[in-house]
Specification:
305 residues, alpha+beta, Aminopeptidase, 2 domains, 8 helices
């Protein structure tokens, strides 16, 4: 019986929920199916389960669940389930980010007469949602759209199309051409969870981008600044850096960035804007070229006040 119950749960998660096979729900769930939250039982039935699955799949249309481990005892089955999907829909007020999410849940289900009658558990979703910017930490949300002048505005990424446009811009620009980064590599980096990403645009066209990393060893890292060719030499790069500094200095006393040793123009710009060289990492990304670490500071990380 225990093995049959485990097989039922595996099929339910990996085939029915992952595949959106809602017609199969009566073969997996009892008519009086209930979910348990906070120690309280909430009978939602087949229709409630169907609506819940539809809502989750609107948020993550490519949702895939994988059962990793299971333990069964009597009517109960505990399962460790890995969830993967792309955050493409709004749910509970969280705007879509277009970024991939991966989380792990521990589910506890009760099976009677070959049907799931009760479900409970907990999922580690907060960390992944913080990483992709779907929810915000105590420091506050990223800035909304801002006017940079010359008809250009900057705003957070809104979805996959923003990443696609910015990957193309980067692949056609320095330093990524010399570094040998393909458009596919750059697109994968723009989709990776963690940093805040901003698109600069004018009239719907991509004018530039920013990528800011507010976690890790160098808190307040200006990871990427790029300006599209038609907008170069018009002060947009300086405006994007100023926007990035305002965002980072709101929560942290230092801004860090790296500039390639073969990019003297960018080095001059950052020195003019008040950045000072911390050191150089030789042969860091490609052989024969170094990355110069620079910093602009308002004080130490601790005791800045």
């Amino acid at each position: 019986m225990s093995e049959a119950n485990k097989a039922l749960l595996r099929r339910y998660y990996e085939e029915v929920v992952s595949g959106g096979l809602l017609d199969e729900l009566p073969r997996c769930l009892a008519a009086d199916y209930a979910e348990v939250h906070g120690g309280r039982r909430h009978p939602i039935g087949l229709e409630g389960a169907r609506q819940h699955i539809l809502g989750v799949r609107r948020t993550y249309p490519d949702l895939r669940l994988e059962v990793q481990q299971q333990i069964a005892e009597g009517e109960w089955v505990a399962s460790t389930v890995r969830m993967r999907g792309t955050h493409l829909g709004e749910w509970l007020g969280m705007r879509p980010t277009g970024l991939p999410v991966e989380a792990t849940a521990v589910n506890v289900d009760r099976v009677v007469a070959g049907r799931i009658v009760e479900h409970g558990g907990a999922a580690d979703l907060l960390g992944p949602l913080l990483e992709i910017g779907a929810v915000e930490a105590a420091g506050g949300p990223p800035p909304a759209a801002a006017d940079l002048g010359d008809g250009v505005s900057v705003r957070p990424f809104r979805g996959a199309a923003d990443a696609e446009a910015c990957a193309g811009l980067m692949a056609a620009s320095e330093p990524w051409r010399t570094l040998g980064r393909s458009r596919e590599d750059l697109l994968a980096s723009l989709r990776a969870p963690g940093p805040e990403r901003y698109l600069a645009e004018r009239g719907g066209a991509c004018a530039g981008l920013l990528v800011l990393n507010l976690r890790g060893a160098f808190v307040g890292y200006l990871q990427t600044v790029a300006v599209a060719a038609p907008f170069r030499g018009r002060g947009l790069g300086t405006a994007l850096v100023a926007f990035a500094e305002a965002r980072i200095f709101r929560d942290h006393p230092n801004v860090f960035l790296c500039v390639s040793s073969f990019n003297p123009g960018a080095q001059r710009l950052y020195r003019r804007l008040g950045y000072r060289e911390v050191g150089e990492l030789p042969d860091y990304l490609v052989r024969g070229h170094g990355e110069i670490l620079m910093r602009k500071s308002r004080g130490p990380l601790f005791g800045a006040g």
